[in-house]
Amino acid sequence: MDRRHKVELFEVIRQGYAAGETIQGLSKKHGVHRRMVRQAIGNAIPPERKAVVKEAPRLGPVKELIDGMLAVDLQAPRKQRHTAHRIWMRLCREHPDHPVGEATVRRYVRQRKRELGLNGREVFVPQSYQLGQEAQVDWFEGMAILGGEVRKLQFFAMRSMGSGDAFHRAYPHATQQALLEAHEHAFNYFGGVFKTLRYDNMTSVVKKILRGYQRVETERIIAFRSHWGYQSEYCNPASGNEKGGVEGELGWFRRNWLVPVPEASALDTLNEHILDACLESRSRTIIGRGLTVGQASELEREHLSQLAEEGFPIHESLYPLLVDGKGRVKVKTNWYSTPLWPGLRASAVVGPLTVEIMHDNKVTARHPRCYGRGHEILDLEHYLDVLERKPGAMKGSTPLEQWRRAGRWPACLDAIWQQLEQRHGKGKGTREMIALVRAGSSDGWDKLIVAVEEALRLGISDSAAVMHLLRMPDPEQRRQHAVALAEELLQFERPTPVMDNYDLLLANTTGAIH
Q: What are phi and psi of 39, to 5 degrees?
């Protein structure tokens, strides 16, 4: 019985009871239980039906898995925790033998999050924008595992408000150089420049906040904006809702691509994964829109301004820098090694991720940029000439120790070094090892390590033999060389000569000359 008919039945029962009919008589007359007659007499509105608690037999096998994910979230950054949808997606992918409905997972996750105190919601106001009209820019903080080490990174985000497409990129620090470089990567990703970019009041862009929306901008951002030809607008302080599009994008990207915490061998590899994630996100459709993000982004390209022919000079140049007696130059607050001789003047090109040491317009050294103070960033290759003259200094050298910490000097190199010293003596053995280091620098470190491991397996303790193994073609290369040689020899092939006529001269015939 639907609720409307039940309300009408209550009305008839109440009228009959008011006319003097008994409860038992009304029950028989209308074919209902006496309990319902008493409910109708007590209240004209039928009581709500009690919710039936349904069993979830398919949820049982995955409850522990869900609890484990939520337990990990207790230690994860607040904005990189699992949503119910993300948990359901992981269950479908990682445990296909236990299928369970998303609604079932949502109900259980909602209950468990209340119990664990993990609830939290953000509300954003929907906005409408024309294609190519505006993009919003922001930074957000996230964790990633790079080379087995947990690192706190700054993620750049630029979101198109017309198409909903978004670009992300990770940096170790949210510096002005990183911001400008990320802008150029984003412009190339979108295929053009938006008419307006909206920012909050980040210090790399704004020097001073004036009345209303007026700002005193930094000189570099003014020049950069002029170079690319867009207008900038700024939010009121502590008013993240004024750029709600990018704020919502940050949350969506964290939940879908940074959960669980991503792992990569290096920052460049991580950014490649992030770019793939951005491209994959174009296949989704935003609620209330008829086109996918990718289709809308293609239409938006026609409304964007053309890209500049040349990039903006983002990198900072420092000159002069004096090479000290330890083969280092001081760039900002840290020391970087270089193969230049002490006393020479050099220059440095400082980018958001790298530092290049220049001399005579040539790059002599390239290092990852360090944002600390007073650190030494040394490369063993820059000291090989000195170590050949002073081989005793190699074993305890700081560059070698930094290579060990970075995993660039595996145990097999120490093993071959020890054998070279036993065979040739410490000085000559170290020089032989330096020759191997040079060979690894030119031919590739991975190949050198493979060659050293093979030499140790064969019991070889000679640098020339290791170099032979290093430069020996692999089986595939030898096969290709054999095929190429066979094709080259085809031009010299001739048919086998027929010797029958010569055999006649040897026959024992009358009158023949013997």
A: -60, -40
Torsion, Cα of 29, 35, 38, 44 (10° steps): -90
Measure the CA–CA gap between 77 and 144, rounded to whole angstroms.
Answer: 11
User: DSSP code of 382?
Assistant: G
What is the token pair recorded at 377? Answer: 């960033």
In degrees, rounded to 5, the angle at the alpha carbon of residue 193 between the alpha carbons of residues 188 and 199 is: 105
Confirm if 331 and 318 have CB atoms less than 8 A apart.
yes
φ, ψ of residue 143 to 5 degrees: the values are -105, 145
Main-chain phi, psi angles of 136, to 5 degrees: -115, 140
Element (H, E) at 386: helix 384-389
Show Cβ contacts of residue 113 under 8 Å, excluding neighbours closer than 6 positions: 70, 119
| Per-residue model confidence as pLDDT tens digits over 84-133 | 999 999 999 999 998 998 988 998 888 888 888 776 555 555 667 899 99
Q: What is the DSSP code (8-state) at residue 307?
A: P
- Measured CA to CA, the distance from residue 419 to residue 425 in angstroms comes to 9
Residues 446-473 have a mean pLDDT of 86
How far is 339 from 327, CA to CA, in rounded Å? 7
- What is the full DSSP assignment across 242-273? GGHHHHHHHHHHHHHHSSSPPEESSHHHHHHH
- For residues 87 and 58, give the distance between their C-alpha atoms in angstroms, rounded to a whole number: 15
| Neighbouring residues of 284: CB distance < 8 A, sequence distance ≥ 6 | 292, 293
Q: How far apart are CA 482 and CA 466, in angstroms?
A: 24
What is d(CA 250, CA 86) in angstroms, rounded to the nearest whole number?
16
Give the pLDDT confidence score for residue 245 in this predicted structure: 85
**Residues 6 or more apart from 493 whose CB is under 8 A from it?**
none
